[in-house]
Amino acid sequence: MGGESVSKWGEAIGRQLIERLPAGDGPWRFHILLPEDTERGFGRGRGKLIEREVMEFLKKRQRRLIRSLNPAAAPPFLPGESLAQAVLISSGAGWIGVADANLRHRFRRIMSPFPGGEAPVADDRFPPSRAYRKLLEAEQHLGVSLAAGESCVELGASPGGWSAIVLRRGVRLIAIDRSPLRADLMRSPHLQFIRGDAFRFQPEQSVDWLLSDLIASTDRLIDLLTAWIAARWCRRFIFTIKFKGDEDYPRLEPLKQFLDQHCTEYKLRCLRHNRNEVTAMGLL
Ligand SMILES: C[S@@+](CC[C@H](N)C(=O)[O-])C[C@H]1O[C@@H](n2cnc3c(N)ncnc32)[C@H](O)[C@@H]1O
What we know:
Layout lengths: L5 H15 L7 E6 L13 H15 L1 H6 L13 E9 L2 E7 L1 H6 L25 H11 L8 E5 L5 H8 L3 E6 L5 H4 L4 E5 L11 E6 L5 H13 L3 E9 L9 H11 L2 E5 L7 E7 L1
Parallel strand pairs: 1-2, 4-5, 4-7, 5-6, 7-8
Antiparallel strand pairs: 2-3, 8-10, 9-10
Helix pairs in contact: 1-2, 5-6, 8-9
The protein binds S-adenosylmethionine.
The site of S-adenosylmethionine (SAM) has 21 residues, from helix 6 and strand 5.
């Protein structure tokens, strides 16, 4: 697919959408992805303009698609919703792909309702570390958030970026780390802090959430997560798995098989705010 000017791109993408979107009035959403503004005059800044041109083209040529467009495009996907994605790699070249609801469901663990797979996270100055952004991203990908009154164990919680978020929401938190959280968080009435080795901790009763951002070897982290799930010590989890280099990436394959068997839903994603890490999140 090629376009060059904003209006040519609008027309080229519009024609492809008319051809490729499934017949019928099922809802659909549209993502347009451009590189950072590198080439002169071409880049992310153009995305909104091209999208407007696409919609103008469809208004003239195929109104039914305007009527069935999901304009809010907030997650989660609607039942039967198709996803159309245009990826423009330069001012003259790009790809377009349309996934109908069946295809989308088959690839639901990797196909995201967020453009480019990036869930938006607002800046927050309250948490003592920027790691809180990983938690907020993960909740959105999972489609479930920690809520007031729920119980949670957090392994490797210091200095308290994730803890600050969940304590502010009124979640009952047991946090385990070798170092304390920031002083004001340590005074929270919702917090029970345990100084010690997170790998040795076992809850007295099962909790709603397991959170972990522990730093340890990939093997130890995967073994810890699977032990918690096998014992059903939590109903839900958000758990960062860290890597050194890339030699441990194949360890994710047996983990996927384990999660297939034990979870009603799960995702393994390298989030925008993950470094050499993957966030495992799921519901038992
Ligand atoms: C990346 S930091 C966690 C950051 C935290 N999520 C936040 O938002 O501020 C990892 C933490 O794991 C803790 N940790 C590593 N190994 C541990 C262990 N065996 N037991 C308890 N804590 C451990 C470290 O002390 C460190 O505070």
